[in-house]
Amino acid sequence: MIDENAYQDKIEFKKVSYLGSFIRDKSAILGLIIVGWFLIWSLIQGILEEIASITSDSKIGYLLLPSNPFHVNFAASLEGPSTRSLSLLFGTNSLGESILSRMLYSMPRDAMVALIVVFSAIIIGSLLGIISGWKGGWLENIIMRLTDSFLSIPALILVIAISIPLKAGFNAVIIALSIVWWPTYARFFRGQTLKIKNMDYMQAAKINGVKRISLFFRYLFLNSIDPVIAYAALDFGNVILTYATLAFLGIGLTIPIPELGAMASNGLGYLPADWWYAVYPSVAILIIVAGFVLVGDRYQDIINNRIDY
């Protein structure tokens, strides 16, 4: 019989060990602080924006912001960074709107795009990868050739090609990213399935009559999830960077809602004199992506035994 208690104890021990490794690593802690702040802020601000939309009270949407991110003040146009007030800390844009307030207002959309795209990619990729690795034969060939077809074309180009016929709006970009983002996960889960399916505990599970769904989820999916989490942490940054690039190109925008990439693009024409217009949104993208990279890279080191845990 399969020793379920021992199996669960092993998983719990690994979780505690991984957590200890993060606590002892300064770069991992820095990454966790950046990622944690970004996700928590995005959640709180996103809830406020949703309440504002439902109640038609726009003030709720910028309750925690230094100022109204949509307040146009031509008298303060392109005012440089100042400590006179929090709303002027990063200066203003050509319309006199607070750059800091607009940056903070835009972050929930970046977080939502990253979460939807990465989780949908894991779900689609795990289903296709596990099925192809388990079944093999013609079904595996079809799935893998489809996967290779997607991987042969840069994701950004595919997203643009898919989103433009859908009018290149915000929802279209999410759909397009979700369509093209799963192949890497599918290849990974297929490789893990091929490695795991002939192991002793899998054979024991079959002999003991474990149901197919339980077999796939508990013994294939969960035993593959650690490296997937590590890659997904890096991938959150990749999605945010890709989404910012699309916004920079003017794709996926919902005017007048600000986007970090679009803010950087709008500020390019004002360089170098009014540098803050483009620099601060760009630096924000860089810091957020770097936070996910630090977390994902350290987690990969731990699970691959490149550092002790």
Task: Outline the structure in words.
By secondary structure, the protein is mostly helical. Helices cover 71% and strands 0% of the residues. Helix 6 (155-163) packs across helix 7 and helix 12 (260-267) crosses helix 13. The two termini are 30 Å apart. The model is unreliable at 1-13 (pLDDT under 50).
Topology of this protein?
Elements: H1 4-23, H2 26-55, H3 58-61, H4 99-135, H5 137-151, H6 155-163, H7 170-180, H8 183-196, H9 200-207, H10 212-221, H11 225-248, H12 260-267, H13 276-303
Q: Let me know the average pLDDT.
A: 86
User: Cα distance, first to last residue?
Assistant: 30 Å
- E-strand count: 0
- The tally of helices reads 13
> For the CA atoms, what is the radius of gyration?
23 Å
What profile does the largest beta sheet have? none
Alpha-beta classification: mainly alpha
Helices and strands, in order, run as HHHHHHHHHHHHH
Runs with pLDDT <50, length 5+?
1-13
- β-strand amount: under 5%
Q: Which oligomeric form is depicted? A: single chain
Estimate the helix proportion, in percent: over 70%
Shape: elongated
Core attributes:
309 residues, mainly alpha, 13 helices, disordered N terminus
